[in-house]
Specification:
The protein is an alpha/beta fold. It has helices at residues 40-45, 57-60, 93-108, 145-153, 168-189, 194-211, 213-224, 231-246, 252-263, 271-285, 292-303, 308-311, and strands at residues 18-22, 51-55, 70-74, 82-85, 112-117, 129-133, 138-142, 159-161. It is elongated. The two termini are 26 Å apart. It binds iron/sulfur cluster.
Length: 329
Amino acid sequence: MAPSTPATAEAAPRPLPKVGVSRCLLGDEVRFDGGHKQSRFIRDTLATYVTFVRVCPELEVGMGVPRETVRLVQVDPDRPPRVRGTRSDTDWTDRMEAWADTRLASLQGMGLRGFLLKRSSPSCGLFRMKVYLENGMPHHAGQGLFARRLCEAFPNLPMEEEGRLGDARLRENFLTRVFVYDDWLTLREQGASAKALVDFHARHKLLVLAHDQARYRQLGPLVADAGKPGLEARLDAYEALLMAALAKPAKRRGNLNAMEHLCGFLKDLPSADKAELRAQMTAYREGIVPLAVPMTLLRHHLRHRDHGWALGQRYLAPTPPELGLNAVL
Ligand code: SF4
């Protein structure tokens, strides 16, 4: 099946979203021992829908393959941990920081829509990295050097560790963020107008509502003021709030809230169909059926009615349907 970006009101063919990736996850033999950590999902499935930008910090900084392993060492509590060789204690921190300055500047110009990072790597690890105190005691609190610099340089960029993609809810959440961010940045690259912001928000209302009610309420006033002076600052604020909202995976309650809104467009549904839909939403609430069951019914009924606003909701198709998501929680 031909890859495509998800349907939106003004969908048009365009390049696949660019997603950065730790090279070893694609099967490149760049690890310290000359091996790789290939992810079949990333290499075989996701590769159809995005264009990968490969990065291996340790290779690119000149550590070579094979190489001595490195680890994070907390020397100064007020500064990020240092990257040091586990046997030789060689300190790579300054060289990696200098390399990161250049590499991140080049990534800034590439229009990345997401980044997938290798977990438990002192360079690429995104969450709960093991950091050693100088007395040798470890604790889990840090990020790999490159992952930390990436977060600082791209605060709104969807990022995830490959190890967490095995969790269907986190996988769906990451991909939803990538494809929504792709739409958003494409809009900004084309020179977003106040009207474009209003239209974008209208299409993404229920998606945001399902993820984060508090930020949903904060976005409304921003959009209401879209036509006032200061559009660029408003777009920046909208982007930060939008991506922070979507970073929270949608929970059952949020999904039911969004589905209730869609049910409001089905008041003329025959009572038998209405009862069936309600029964499946209740089954979803009780954890008996996955989200895909009531969502499929909702899509079916909405498609047979002329409810443009509802059918245009990104919530109904957050990612390319061929990825087979929207089926969890
Ligand atoms: S985890 Fe990062 S630094 Fe290590 S081999 Fe993979 S891409 Fe390279």
